[in-house]
């Protein structure tokens, strides 16, 4: 890729030379044919006309006989046996005797028949001088001009090719921009190429700074967000062990569930913030256990709604991934289902390689369904910031899962998560 521009320029010049060469060769080939069959034919006609004018003035005028031209006259009433055998049967007009290497013009008048023979070897020699040699000179001129233009173009694009080679070697996670520092640029890099190198150097420095800030944020967030969550979990455990009133116990249990949900969200965000080649801490877990846990959390959100939430485990798939990621995925899907379902049912169906979350809620229109995974898109729904489904899709893509939505306005929504890497115990 770094050598793409010079290679394209080289191919363009080669194609230009080939096309120009073919055009010139074809043009001079046509010129040679016209010279041989038009110019020579016209010359022979004029020679014949000139001879008859001389013949009318003096009948003893001999036919033309020069270095390139042979003439034969058969007067009326005389036999043509004096002619060369290959000329005896020719009719008036122009003839190309390829086997004999002759171009013949036969001109018949009342006084007799005149045969003018032009030797093909002489015609070829004339054609070489007037057609082939000019063609070769033109070709060499084109080759020379094209070579000089190519060299000049190569010198112009060489700084860009140099930049392309260095930029193509950049590691997106840690680009090395030191080679593009102004003091390290080649001396022949001037003008727009130097400005481009400066812009790329500045861009690379900004990318390095941005990557450093993201890494620092990931490290600091991992520590700063876990610390208060740990305090909340430990304090709620201690308070729960001493609580006696049922209302207090339920409140503390909700605090514990919310803390676990927050830890799962933090883990999911940290996984999305890491590079894709950095494997998160994974383990084998049962999908049905996660589904039951998230379904229990979702039931607390229903309140007094006339909605039934059911779980059907038709399969027992196991996944190798961080369990909290699936908690986040199913938690978002279930929260959407119970939030937009005012009556009816919410059913979670677990198959051998998938989980379906069906509801009988308000559903989505075709336009809303097409944009459902866009960040911050909520359509006409007032609840939530519009990030849940976007996070779900990013997490699924991160672990090779797929998420599909099927919805009809006022008829409910079905969200299906498929796990290509799921295993089923024997």
Give an account of the 3D structure.
The structure is a single chain. The protein is α+β, with helices and mostly antiparallel strands. It starts with a helix and ends in an 8-residue tail after the last strand. The chain contains eight helices and eleven strands. It has three domains: 4-145, no CATH class; 197-278, Helix Hairpins; 283-418, Heat Shock Protein 90 (2-Layer Sandwich). The strands form three sheets. The chain has a five-stranded mixed β-sheet, with helices on one face. Strands 1-4-3-2 form a four-stranded antiparallel β-sheet. It is 54% helix and 16% strand. It has helices at residues 4-57, 120-168, 192-242, 246-273, 287-302, 323-339, 366-370, 388-398; strands at 69-75, 93-97, 102-108, 112-119, 283-286, 307-313, 318-321, 344-350, 354-359, 402-408, 412-418. It is elongated and about 150 Å long.
Q: Count the domains.
A: 3
**Roughly what percent helix?**
40-55%
Discrete helix count: 8
| Intertermini distance | 51 Å
Mean pLDDT value:
79
Shape: elongated
Largest sheet: 5 strands, mixed
The H-and-E topology, N to C, reads as HEEEEHHHEHEEHEEHHEE
Strand order of the largest sheet: 6-8-9-11-10
- Segments where pLDDT lies below 50 for 5+ residues? none
Report the portion of residues in β strands: 15-25%
Query: Roughly how many Å is the radius of gyration?
Result: 46 Å
Q: Find the structural class using helix and strand composition.
A: alpha+beta
Q: What's the total number of strands? A: 11
């Amino acid at each position: 890729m770094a050598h793409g521009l010079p290679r394209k320029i080289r191919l363009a010049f080669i194609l230009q030379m080939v096309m120009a060469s073919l055009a010139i060769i074809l043009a001079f080939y046509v010129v040679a044919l016209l010279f041989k069959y038009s110019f020579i034919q016209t010359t022979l006609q004029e020679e014949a006309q000139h001879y008859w004018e001389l013949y009318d003035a003096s009948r003893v005028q001999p036919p033309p006989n020069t270095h390139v031209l042979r003439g034969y006259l058969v007067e009326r009433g005389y036999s043509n046996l004096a002619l060369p055998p290959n000329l005896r049967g020719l009719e008036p007009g122009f003839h190309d005797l390829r086997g004999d290497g002759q171009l013949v013009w036969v001109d018949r008048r009342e006084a007799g028949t005149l045969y003018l023979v032009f030797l093909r070897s002489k015609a070829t020699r004339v054609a070489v001088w007037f057609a082939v040699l000019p063609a070769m000179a033109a070709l060499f001129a084109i080759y020379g001009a094209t070579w000089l233009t190519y060299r000049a173009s190569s010198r112009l694009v060489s700084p860009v090719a140099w930049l392309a080679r260095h930029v193509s070697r950049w590691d997106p996670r840690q680009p090395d921009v030191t080679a593009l520092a102004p003091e390290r640029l080649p001396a022949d890099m001037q003008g727009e190429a130097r400005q481009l190198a400066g812009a790329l150097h500045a861009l690379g420095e900004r990318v390095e700074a941005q990557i450093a800030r993201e890494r620092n944020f990931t490290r600091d967030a991992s520590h700063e967000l876990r610390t208060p969550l740990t305090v909340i979990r430990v304090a709620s455990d201690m308070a729960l062990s001493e609580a006696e009133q049922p209302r207090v116990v339920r409140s503390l249990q909700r605090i514990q569930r919310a803390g676990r949900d927050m830890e799962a969200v933090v883990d999911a965000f940290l996984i999305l913030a890491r590079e894709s080649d950095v494997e998160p801490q994974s383990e084998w877990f049962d999908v049905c256990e996660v589904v039951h846990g998230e379904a229990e959390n979702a039931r607390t959100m229903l309140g007094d709604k006339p909605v039934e939430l059911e779980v059907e485990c038709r399969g027992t798939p196991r996944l190798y991934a961080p369990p909290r990621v699936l908690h986040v995925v199913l938690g978002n899907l279930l929260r959407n289902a119970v939030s937009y379902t005012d009556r009816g049912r919410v059913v979670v169906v677990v198959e051998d390689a998938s989980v379906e979350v069906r509801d009988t809620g308000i559903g989505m229109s075709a336009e809303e369904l097409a944009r459902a995974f866009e960040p911050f898109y909520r359509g006409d729904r007032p609840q939530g910031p519009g990030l849940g489904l976007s996070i779900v899709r990013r997490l699924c893509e991160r672990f090779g899962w797929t998420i599909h939505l099927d919805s009809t306005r006022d008829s409910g929504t079905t969200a299906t998560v498929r796990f290509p890497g799921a295993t089923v115990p024997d």
